[in-house]
Amino acid sequence: MQITDVIATDRLGFRFNSSEIVSDVTFALKRGEFLGIVGPNGSGKTTLIRLLLGLLKPTDGSVTLFGQSAALFNEWQKIGYLPQKMATFNPHFPATVREVVGMGLLARKTFPRRTSRGDRESIDAALALMDINSIEGKLIGELSGGQQQRTLIAKALVAGPELLILDEPTTALDPEGRERFFATLKNINTDKAVTIIMITHDIGTIGQHASKLLYLDKNLIFYGGFDDFCLSEDMTDYFGEHSQHLICHRHEAEGPGIR
Questions:
Q1: How far apart are CA 236 and CA 239, in angstroms?
Q2: Residue 137: is its pLDDT beyond 90?
Q3: Burial call 60-88: b when 16+ CB within 10 Å, e when fewer
Q4: Regarding beta strands 163-167 and 34-38, do their DSSP bridges make them parallel or antiparallel, or are they unpaired?
Q5: Are 159 and 105 a contacting pair, CB within 8 Å?
Q6: Residues 6+ positions from 182 with CB-CB distance below 8 Å
Q7: Which one of 126, 168, 184, 259 is most buried, by most CB atoms within 10 A?
Q8: Could you tell me the pLDDT band of residue 243, with boundaries at 50, 70 and 90?
Q9: What burial letters (b/e) apply to 18-50, b meaning 16+ CB within 10 Å?
Q10: Higher-confidence position of 137 and 178
């Protein structure tokens, strides 16, 4: 049986201490689609990502990854993940940029975890993709915030994931770094058909890049293509004409996003 959805949810929900954090979220992504998840602070975006990755157990509904229940899924090498908090390790951890990027290959290895020639080539490619070859020997704690972020993005990409999940990946990047980052995403999304899910607060910019939009405010407010969003009277009522125009103007100016 051919699997058409890389990831899918059905009425997904999560409660904590009787408080509804996420409720009734249903969506599906096929290979090569790019989804931007947006919403206000406290809307449940990071909780949704944790549910998708099996880091939290849903209290309602279900998640499937590559046709398997998230609870049973064990092919994590297919997924690259960059969490919201950049400092996922001690900043004084004595690892170089190259070593940190190489950690992204561990999920697909069994013991003993030796580095092969293919691993070294994959690390070289990830370093080049994020333009950090020149700092590969530096300790991670010596880097600027933007350099650390690019290192962690390379770590998420090094294993060649089929699904890439990014939680606010551009917060530590300067404008030039953000442009380079989105160009990199376009490359892996269009040329390598990597499915991408990205949380962002920048709803205007994401319209230039993603093919679909999911707006979350604990409940699913909107899910669909940007053209559908721009034509939706319900979204005009919800956002107001100015905010909707801002998103749609940038979207239309740049074309229909990455398809």
A1: 5
A2: yes
A3: ebebbbbeeebeebeeebbbbbbbeebee
A4: unpaired
A5: yes
A6: 208, 209
A7: 126
A8: confident
A9: eeebbbebebebeebbbbbbbbeeebbbbbbbb
A10: 137
Place of tokens 């107001």: 240
CA angle 87, 92, 95 (to 5 degrees): 90
Residue-level pLDDT at 71: 84
> Quick check: 56 and 50 in contact, CB under 8 A?
yes
Enter the tokens of residue 33: 């689609």
Count the neighbouring beta carbons within 10 Å of the beta carbon of residue 221.
Answer: 17
- For the sheet with 163-167, list strands across it: 68-69, 60-65, 5-16, 19-30, 219-225, 212-217, 34-38, 195-199, 163-167, 79-82
CA-CA distance, 35 to 232, in Å (whole number)? 18
Instruction: Report phi then psi at 209, rounded to 5.
Output: -125, -40
| pLDDT at residue 256, rounded to an integer | 46
- Rounded to whole angstroms, the Cα distance separating 168 from 38 reads 10
What pLDDT, on a 0 to 100 scale, did the predictor assign at position 257? Answer: 44
Tell whether the model's pLDDT for residue 225 goes beyond 50: yes
Tell me the range of 106-115, 155-164, 182-191 where mean pLDDT is highest.
155-164
Which residues are bridge partners to 198 per DSSP?
Answer: 36, 166
